[in-house]
Amino acid sequence: MDIKQVATHVNSALTETLGESAVLLTEDLSNVVDVGTSVFKANSLDRVVHALVDHIGKVVFVNRPYNGIAPKIYMDSWEFGAVLEKISGDMPAAQDNPSWNLQTGQVYEQDEYTAPTVNVKFYHDKTTFEVPISVTDYQMKSAFSSAEQLVGFVSWIFTQMENAMTKRVDILIMNTIVNMAGETVWDEYKDAQGTALTSLSAKSGVRAINLLYLYNQSTGSALTVAQALKDPDFLRFAGEIIRLTMVRLRAASKLFNVGGKDRFTPENLLKVVLLSDFVSATATYLQSGTFHKELVALPGYQEVPYWQGTGEDYSLNATFKINIASDHTKTVDLGSGKLLGVMFDRDALGVNNYDRRITDHRNAHGEFTNYWYKQDARFFNDLNENYVAFFIA
Q1: 188 located within any domain
Q2: Segment (H or E) for 119
Q3: What pTM was estimated for this model as a whole?
Q4: pLDDT for the residue numbered 180
């Protein structure tokens, strides 16, 4: 163990804290703070005979389960069969009621058959991956002082495996949400030929809503993307549009889904996901917390720190970024635009047949056991259900 004498350091540092030094001193803290080493160094010997090796007095495992940051969109599972069949339909049209306009001699048809209009979608894709790990029977005992420490180490290994699975499921869930955003933006901003996106800053759609365009059009402003999240007036306007859209989704309409189907989303089936940068900006620059309180009260509200990733520094260009190839044919890149949030019907997207399991096999020759953490799941988008994306460009 290396013993550091710090009397000189604390005496000189005291002059700073008491106000006796006109300037801050340049302090060498290498003798004060231990930043740890990967292995013992030569000074890991006792301080008396200088031959005895210091023993480990306490072992601490950084063993914390990761709960994930992705919204919870898990749905049903089933044991047999492979295909998900989703059945929906269109409301029948109304016709005149002849009861109040009866005419003598007129024949009134009552045997005509009216079939329901049925829409059927089939989902048959599945995703799968596994994470392997090996645990030895005896070989690790030499590294620990007790059975309790060894058990703690093995527990730590399995926690890391669970965390590895959870982090990867998070990615797939966020991919599912972002893919629907890409499909929605593409549908409203594709060119006449359906081969490329038109300018995202030139208009606002109904399902892919450019909040900055609407704000500048309604106020005559020329606010930029870089200024938007620091402008209280824009943030109030954005909150107003998001609140209005939540209410509008409750009414039956064909406007809020790519398939143009007659759909409505009651409040208890609405899911709202907002980027934390946007939520934080509303809390910082707006005195009223009404907007945030309304969102938190929703059963499906959640914040996420990014859509696809953090980049190298959690910059807005990374956390707000959407750049995906959707449906294998469309490339959707918001470019300088930024996705603030999405809201969608519970049935618009989700995870079906989520199955996480562990298989194992012991190697008697090598005296170790292999474990495979496996996962199968179906991640789906239904373009016939309500989904709205809010962005600025």
Answers
A1: yes
A2: strand 117-123
A3: 0.81
A4: 92
